[in-house]
Write a structure and sequence with these properties.
Layout (H helix, E strand, L loop, with lengths): L5 E5 L6 H15 L6 E5 L5 H8 L4 E5 L16 H6 L4 E4 L2 H6 L4 H13 L3 E6 L3 H5 L3 H13 L11 E4 L13 H19 L1 H6 L1 E5 L4 H8 L6 E4 L6 H8 L2
Parallel strand pairs: 1-2, 1-8, 2-3, 3-4, 4-5, 5-6, 6-7, 7-8
The structure holds phosphoenolpyruvate.
């Protein structure tokens, strides 16, 4: 089965609305007509409106970096799925390791956020991955299995149709260290197996599993050529339009 790759930019806490508009003005002409891969930019919440306006009618979609698990309510500082879809945001990153590390995101909140994202028709990019100590202790598979099982809990294959996963070894995020294509492929096979157990074989074969962790123009081709890698979640390498274009066109 061929899976169209998804190349997603995670801007983290970088760029103002003005800088967002300027990015799109430079980036869109460089990727115009590029249909081999799906391209998504995930800026900070405050920039989403500018991004959606700039991307309108183009081959680039816009995603958020987080959502809340409730429909609405007294959750100061949070953003609901309906608020995102109301401004035509189509994708959302869930459970990024920085959110797990600094904002108490757990496997349970990831599960709740995944459920409501799917209910609202968003395409969720659920992040999983081990920290260095876990890899060194030989626990990578266990960690991935636990994160996937809990994220998928109670969700049906029919409901999960739009799901994408990003395998992001935490030791490779923002460090310049990258997993080798083989290391990523091994992890992706574990994740695909968990998806098969939760949603069935056909679903698992169609599931896109992205790699994230210091993807740069120089290593994108090697990583994207690995059959198990169905795209990339790119942090630092996505902030500059020329750099991200080179990754998209690996
Ligand atoms: C990320 O933020 O998801 C990420 C992979 O960051 P970087 O590409 O900078 O390692």
């Amino acid at each position: 089965m061929t899976r169209k790759k998804l190349i997603a930019a995670n801007w983290k806490m970088y760029k103002t609305p003005e800088q967002t508009t300027a990015f799109f003005a430079e980036f869109l002409p460089m990727v115009a007509g590029h249909s081999r891969d799906e391209i998504v930019i995930c800026p900070p919440f405050l920039d989403l409106h500018a991004a959606v306006e700039a991307a309108r009618g183009s081959n680039v979609a816009v995603g958020a970096q987080n959502i809340h698990w409730a429909k609405e309510g007294a959750f100061t500082g949070e953003i609901s799925p309906a608020m995102l879809t109301a401004i035509q945001v189509t994708h959302v990153i869930i459970g990024h390791s920085e959110r797990r590390q600094y904002f108490n995101e757990t496997d349970d909140t990831v599960n709740r956020k995944l459920e409501i994202a799917l209910e609202n028709g968003l395409t969720p990019i659920v992040c999983v991955g081990e920290v260095l100590e876990e890899r060194e202790a030989g626990l990578t598979e266990d960690v991935l299995r636990r994160q996937c099982t809990r994220a998928f809990n109670g969700i049906s294959a029919r409901k999960a149709a739009k799901l994408a996963i990003a395998y992001e070894p935490v030791w490779a995020i923002g460090t310049g260290k990258t997993a080798t294509p083989q290391m990523a492929a091994d992890a992706h096979m574990v994740i695909r197996h968990e998806a098969e157990k939760a949603f069935g074989k056909e679903f698992a074969q169609g599931l896109r599993i992205l790699y994230g962790g210091s993807v740069k123009p120089d290593n994108a081709t090697a990583l994207m050529s690995e059959g198990e890698i169905d795209g990339a979640l790119v942090g630092g390498g996505s902030l500059d339009p020329a750099s991200f274009t080179r990754i998209v066109k690996y």
